[in-house]
Design goal:
With about 375 residues, this protein is an alpha/beta fold. It is built from 16 helices and eight strands. It folds into two domains: about 170 residues, 3-Layer(aba) Sandwich (Rossmann fold); about 200 residues, Dehydroquinate synthase-like, alpha domain (Up-down Bundle), CATH 1.20.1090.10. The strands form two sheets. It has a six-stranded parallel β-sheet, covered by helices on one side. A two-stranded antiparallel sheet has the order 6-7. Helix 8 runs parallel beside helix 10, helix 9 packs antiparallel against helix 10 and helix 12 runs antiparallel to helix 14. Bound molecules: 5,6-dihydroxy-NADP (NZQ) and zinc ion. Zinc ion binds next to helix 8.
């Protein structure tokens, strides 16, 4: 196992009827900016629950945060914060709302050009507003990590950054808030979680047996629970399991002491920035191809994955790897998510645009070995058709 340091300060309040505890978690003297998206929390009743809980607090609102939150739009929160002396942010929504709120938390007190917060990891901040979350879409793990992903509307830039100051103080995870998710967002969340796990698991062995088993338990749980929520979107037990899996997929624990890849995410972000695929869709396209192209470097872990997750024990190593990739693709497709770029109207002739973006973002040495150069990225993208 590799050396590591781990400190995750986020408090989790999990389960039914937890939202009213938001009042206990934020001191009464705080001036709160409630941040949310484009209306789902109003139609599913979460907004009313939060407002009722905070009836004795001072609240202001900033709404309309888009999926793949946009830098330019998020900056509009800063004058509201200054004018109203806001000193606590409460994000209510999915990963985009939480990520956008983390950016606002960092930008509120930042003196330089706020784009510096996004293009550096860790961000060059020395202070940030405190934030709490009410999660409504299990996917990103943003509710229990210090990362964020922000895009620009004026150019195809979608970049991830993080800072220890951006861990939420608390996150409320009530699975009933996810009953209203459309099937596409449920699928996105399951795939995002699955691929957070593979980014931290499908690398090379370092004898980290516990992290391996934890990663495998998340993957197996996703595979077991996914069909249940498609059969019945109000299956509380299945929703609860998916929610807790998503948080565990990216709350630091399974990724410490092991090599990390993250190339699927980096390649996927460029696809979203250029062609607008949802985050989960972009990952479902890239992962099977990445595993195919990197099959030699990842051989031992893909074989372990094939055996422990998909029960693949017969055939040559290459046949087993082919089968593991096929099973992975079939799982994503079973959720209704297409796994070929052509299915999203993208053509092979557009691959150079993605390569230019990678180059501009300095993403020229990706993966757990740092050996995915632009040429290999191009091979991976070309394999996605
Ligand atoms: O805009 P609203 O009304 O909130 O609607 C959203 C949005 O349209 C809707 N939604 C959310 N909860 C709902 C709901 N609809 C009905 N019922 C509910 N309970 O779903 C749509 C998508 O929401 P979004 O927040 O964009 O989805 P997700 O949670 O998948 O977040 C994706 C963003 O997170 C980033 C992605 O790149 C992307 O920008 N990521 C953040 C990470 C992190 N901070 O650690 C890691 C991830 O790898 C990822 O990159
Ligand atoms: Zn992700």
């Amino acid at each position: 196992m590799l050396n590591f340091t781990l400190q995750n300060p986020t408090k989790i309040l999990f389960g039914k009827n937890q939202i009213h505890h938001v009042a206990r978690e934020i001191p009464l003297n705080k001036r709160i900016l409630l941040t949310y998206g484009r209306g789902s929390i109003k139609s599913n009743g979460v907004y009313n629950q939060v407002i009722r809980a905070l009836k004795n607090h001072t609240i202001f609102e900033f709404d309309g945060i888009e999926p793949n939150p946009k830098f330019e739009q998020l900056l509009q929160a800063i004058p509201i914060i200054k004018k109203n002396k806001i000193d606590f942010l409460l994000a209510v929504g999915g990963g985009s709302v939480i990520d956008g709120t983390k950016f606002i938390a960092a930008a509120a007190k930042y003196k330089g050009d706020p784009w510096n917060i996004v293009i550096n990891d860790p961000s060059p901040i020395d202070t940030a507003l405190p934030l709490g979350c009410v999660l409504t879409l299990p996917a990103t793990g943003s509710e229990m990590n210090c990362g964020s992903v922000v895009s620009r509307s004026s150019s195809p830039d979608k970049l991830s950054f993080g800072h220890d100051l951006l861990y939420p103080k608390f996150s409320i995870l009530d699975p009933t808030t996810t009953f209203s998710l459309p099937p596409k967002q449920t699928a996105n969340g399951i795939i995002d979680t699955f691929i957070h796990v593979t980014e931290q698991y499908l690398t090379y062995p370092v004898g980290a047996s516990l992290q391996d088993r934890q990663a495998e338990s998340i993957l197996l749980t996703l595979i077991e629970e996914a069909p249940k929520v498609f059969a019945n979107p109000k299956n509380h037990s299945a929703r609860a399991n998916l929610m807790w899996c998503a948080t565990w997929g990216l709350n630091d624990f399974i990724g410490v002491g092991v090599p990390n890849d993250w190339a699927t995410h980096k390649l996927g972000h460029e696809i979203t920035a250029r062609f607008g695929l949802d985050h989960g869709e972009s990952l479902a396209v890239v992962l099977p191809s990445l595993l195919n192209i990197k099959r030699n470097q990842k051989k031992e872990k893909i074989l372990q994955y094939g055996k422990r997750i998909w029960n693949i024990t017969k055939g040559s190593d290459n046949e087993k790897i082919d089968k593991a990739i096929m099973k992975t693709r079939m799982f994503f497709e079973s959720l209704g998510t297409k796994t070929k770029l052509s299915a999203y109207g993208v053509s092979k002739a557009q691959v150079p645009l993605l390569i230019q973006q990678l180059k501009r973002h300095g993403l020229t040495a990706l993966g757990e070995h740092g050996d995915i150069n632009l040429k290999q990225s191009e091979s991976i993208y070309r394999d996605c058709f």
